[in-house]
Amino acid sequence: MCGIIGITSNKEVTTRIINSLKKLEYRGYDSAGLATLKDGFINEVKCEGRVEALEKNISKTNVQGEIGIGHVRWATHGKPSTINAHPHSSETVSVVHNGIIENSTILKKILEKKGYKFKSQTDTEVIAHLVTDYLKKNNLKNTIIKVLNKLHGSFALGIIFKDYPNLIVGARRGSPLAVGYGPNENYLGSDSYALKSMTNKVSYLNDGEFCLIKENQVEFFDTKGNKANKKILNLSQDNQNYDKGDYKHFMAKEIDEQPTTIKNCVNEYIDKISKQINIYNLPWKTKEISSIVLIGCGTAYHSCLIAKYWFEEHTNLDVTVDIASEFRYRKLKFKNDCLYVFVSQSGETADTYAALDICKKNKMKTCSIVNVVESSIARDSELVLPIHCGPEIGVASTKAFLGQMLVLYMLCLKLSFDMKIINKKNYQEKIKNLLSLSNLCKKTLLTDSKIQKTSRTFIEAKGSMFLGRGYSFPIALEGALKLKELAYVHAEGYPAGEMKHGPLALIEEGMPVVVIAPRDDYYKKTISNMQEVIARGAKVLLITNKSKDEIHSENIWETIEVENLSEDLFPFLTTIPLQKLAYYSAMHKGYDIDKPRNLAKSVTVE
Ligand code: M6R
Q1: pLDDT tens, position by position, 339-357
Q2: How far is residue 392 CA from its own chain's centroid?
Q3: What's the pTM value of the predicted model, to 2 decimals?
Q4: Which residues line ligand 1 (CB under 6 A)?
């Protein structure tokens, strides 16, 4: 992960580096640092913790310069600490790095033998010494080419040099990197978001490329050092809302925004007059597709798991769902009639990107479902279907999850209709249901006070379980993930029917268990499984939907009823109480809800 910024200018850069680092904190927030070059000296300030702390340190040290690089870290090699924070510098070179250098141990040994002294436990420090070493006998360009050839693994790099006073070198393999163009200054950044407040003109480095950035000139080179031409792209105006408003946390705001984000997304994709789904730009004929693979990580993966049920129900496609980090290393048989769909809020997740890259190299049909339309995954897919959620800042994914499910559902209906599987009447009925979804989400958000109360039991327990069948099984996984991620409580999501095959042994008196059982085809079976856990002492929080029919079970601890709607859309509503359960649990414990420990919003290492 980690975020990189670099600015070379004819005016002071420190404040702007700090401001950009604040924007990059979604990529990592365990430590931060910057280095500037002034009067022939590299000045470095770093600290453990947030950019806010770095800002305070800088005001004490008065570090200034017209060229500088900055970094926010998510630790891979070496624990989060000031010493391991980037930049890592030798006397002549300072480096910021996103990614992992896989051969750092061996490179370190070689450099130590040559007399180089290491201060940190990071893999990055080898780069600083390697560059220093090669510079002794090579010109700058050859140094960069040779150093990049020596490094194994993935990286995005920003480097400044004592002896090249207005130059930043950027290099990319695996991890994304953008260059921005300004008046008498140019920029390097992990993404365009970090550069948007300074410029709307950017270029992206391709894999293996490096660049030399000066205040009035940018040059790009391929792996061999041949000049590469670049398009300068215009970024869209940034009128997005990054403000918490009156909310205490972004997560609370993002949960509450869901009726609006659902409505916006439905409006983007549904033509209300013709009652059609506007996905007209498919780059392939539907008859060329007979199977579909849905790929993502974490919450995005859960949205794929739910979509599997929809695709199986409404299309004739063979459906496979895969975790990106598994997919990328499997011995796969690529098929020309398969559509590969990549789901990612950030569009920068390293494993998902790598999976996409493999499919592209095998000339497969690729489609991405993303929130950030300027992201690497969006740029490199044949078809991009945005989820139109607006920025999601909280590390825990909430509104993006509903957006991902929504776009997957609409893609499924569209393919089903085009393939003549679903008839027009059913198709339009389902579209009509989608038009009421936003309002039903709004009503479901009112189920608040009960969840606040029950959440105390979850944080006091030594563990909890989330159970569901069918569409509700991936929702159980998602509910458990949210609770783990935010409240640091052990939680397991399980298919309700699997409990008797082992996990039932975990149930003991008072253990909180969430059972997700809307009145769908699986309802009765799930209720039976619920009774089995109640009989063994579990305190069951049942999430079901409103109905005139009684629930035939005794001793349910608490019941939360979501609104009523068509069966296949229940996942949108049953998710909401689980998001709140995790939110309130973390709040009772006083944890940092928007930035949970050990995590980052965008996972750009594998
Ligand atoms: O940006 P992406 O959707 O690709 O991110 C994938 C996961 O890292 C992400 O969903 C993660 O699991 C969330 N923090 C869960 O709330």
Answers
A1: 999 999 999 999 999 999 9
A2: 10
A3: 0.88
A4: 297-300, 344-346, 349, 352, 395-397, 481, 485, 602-603
